[in-house]
Write a structure and sequence with these properties.
With 308 residues, the protein is α/β, with parallel strands linked by helices. It has two domains: 214 residues, Spore Coat Polysaccharide Biosynthesis Protein SpsA, Chain A; 70 residues, no CATH class. Helices cover 38% and strands 24% of the residues. Strands 1, 2, 3, 4, 5, 6, 7, 10 and 11 form a nine-stranded mixed beta sheet that branches. Strands 8-9 form a two-stranded antiparallel ribbon. It is globular. GO terms for molecular function: glycosyltransferase activity. Belongs to the glycosyltransferase 2 family. InterPro entries: Nucleotide-diphossugar_trans. Keywords: Glycosyltransferase, Transferase.
């Protein structure tokens, strides 16, 4: 594949107490065959000086050490601001629990060159431990229900038919975003902290007149939920996961003109969740969902920051 030096990419990886995943991710990035990129590692105040350890193992990375955990949105925004200041033409968000194919970035860049008005391009994402199964082939937005649907979710790769490349939203697990789209639409909304910030950002970038597309020739592999899994007497997912999921779902509904059908639909969904947790004796998760509903409805929404 012939490459052009006109497209420069800052790959932003956020680490939070996930050094083993991040080491594997950075090792796979060393094999990338597209030449014009740099890696910005943002450490979200991990324990045991993980950022410093990773810098020693991978001296080529640019390390930004946060003094507190800013979440997915805040951590990535720190890296995005750095990349924009340095003049990169594109920013690639990449989860630390991923492995990439050597040509994944080149395929994304090729798509970007061919489609200059595309603001976001997502690769095909497969499960790391079952690479014959799709984790995400992009996202669809059902406006009447304010519902974000993952395309290809857990479908066998061999049976999946890629019907169209244009998407409604892309996952923050891996997305190539143009500088122009960010300058016009703004940064990730840090009020979300984590979950649904990628959907909100995608919809905002589309509203600014940019496309969101899938490049299925670009392939990465995802562990899925590595930072959210922690064994307890209430299962592997932390109650905080449910809180942010529920709260941010209502943030998203309200931000999309407060769709009444979406409000009713999601309130019904989460009520069923609470009934389930009640009968299973998972009271911390029940409380988390209830608090998420309260805060999702009641907290005033804040606009996303812009750069500069």
């Amino acid at each position: 594949m012939a490459f052009t030096s006109e497209v420069s990419v800052a790959i932003i990886v956020v680490n939070w107490n996930g050094i083993e995943f991040t080491k594997s991710c950075l090792a796979s990035l060393r094999k990338v065959d597209y030449p014009n990129y740099a890696i910005i590692l943002v450490d979200n105040a991990s324990e045991n000086e993980e950022g410093k350890q990773l810098k020693q193992l991978f001296p080529e990375i640019h390390l930004i050490q946060n003094q507190e955990n800013l979440g997915f949105a805040g951590g990535n925004n720190v890296g995005i601001r750095k990349a924009l200041k340095e003049g990169f033409s594109h920013i690639l968000l990449l989860n630390n629990d991923t492995l990439v194919k050597p040509d994944f970035l080149g395929q994304l860049v090729r798509k970007a060159i061919q489609n200059p008005k595309t603001g976001i391009i997502q690769p095909l994402i497969l499960f790391l431990h079952n690479p014959k199964e799709i984790w995400s082939a992009g996202g669809k937005w059902v406006k009447s229900l304010s519902r974000a649907i993952t395309l290809g979710d857990r479908e066998p790769l061999a049976d999946y038919r890629f019907k169209k490349v244009e998407l409604d939203w892309a996952t923050g697990c891996c997305m190539l975003v143009s500088r122009e789209a960010i300058l016009q639409a703004g940064l990730l909304n840090e009020q979300y902290f984590l979950y649904f910030e990628d959907v909100e950002w995608s919809l905002r970038i589309k509203a600014a007149g940019f496309g969101v597309q899938l490049e299925e020739k670009s392939v990465i592999y995802h562990e899925a939920g590595a930072s959210s899994k922690k064994k307890s007497n209430e299962g592997t997912l932390s109650p905080k996961v449910f809180y942010f999921h529920v709260r941010n779902q209502f943030f998203l509904v309200r931000g999309q003109e407060g769709n009444f059908g979406g409000m009713i639909y999601h309130l019904g969904r989460f009520t069923l969740w609470m009934i389930y947790f009640l009968f299973r004796g998972r009271f911390q998760k029940l409380k988390a969902v209830a608090k998420g509903i309260r805060d999702g409805w009641g907290i005033s929404l804040k606009p996303a920051s812009r750069w500069p």
